[in-house]
Amino acid sequence: MQDHIVVLTGAGISAESGLSTFRDNGGLWEQHSVYDVATPEAFARNQELVLRFYNDRRRQLESAQPNQAHRLLAELEKRYRVTVITQNVDDLHERGGASNVIHLHGELTKARSSRYPELVYDIGYRDINPGDTCDRGAQLRPHIVWFGEEVPMLEKAADIVRTADHLLIVGTSLQVYPAAGLVYEVDMDVPITVVDPGEPASVSRARVIRKGAAEGVAEWVDSLK
Prior knowledge:
Pfam families: SIR2. Residues 1-225 form the Deacetylase sirtuin-type domain. One of its GO terms (cellular component) is cytoplasm. The active site is at 105 (proton acceptor). The protein starts with a strand and ends with a helix. β6 (106-113) and β7 (120-122) form a beta hairpin. It has helices at 11-15, 34-37, 40-45, 47-63, 68-75, 92-95, 154-161, 213-224, and strands at residues 4-9, 28-29, 32-33, 81-86, 101-103, 106-113, 120-122, 140-144, 166-170, 192-195, 207-209. The protein is of the alpha/beta class. It has two domains: 1-19 and 66-105 and 151-225, Rossmann fold (3-Layer(aba) Sandwich), CATH 3.40.50.1220; 22-63 and 107-144, SIR2/SIRT2 'Small Domain' (2-Layer Sandwich). It is built from eight helices and eleven strands. The protein is 28% helix and 21% strand.
């Protein structure tokens, strides 16, 4: 049976494709506070601003390209069973060739009903505008897990981590909960590797590769050989 490689990815892997992050800008994203654009309260207060913000992010994403880290992780599927669990809302893993991706915080290329969360639509890189509604007449919103909302894929992700033979953590500081708690679901005998150029959060017994995502993932893949 093939070894199961589970990869946890965060903003650092997308940053190498030119996508900006809240954390790298002092809690601002294109000069917007997270509380202005990434909470249910913000959407209730200023729907037009929130929709415009995510429309801009979608256009930015359309012009971005997967980087070497995305492609190398996808190529691992030729030799291993691979599951990517990402905190990112972009589609760069899929466009890089990954076939098994769990999005903890939602997907920018999807919209869902603001009243009936089970109604989710693929929209690609199109805008969501005020007045765009679901099949039951409610306003559409980005299919994003905003601050203060539950993370519906978390338990599925935890179940997957428990089956890992290797755990690779790329581009995340492991400071954002509940996603950061996933690392503690892995069996004690499973090797953990953290790829992070800065000072990653302490992960006991983890090997740390202090390089950027593309360079660090390449080093780790070479070590598997």
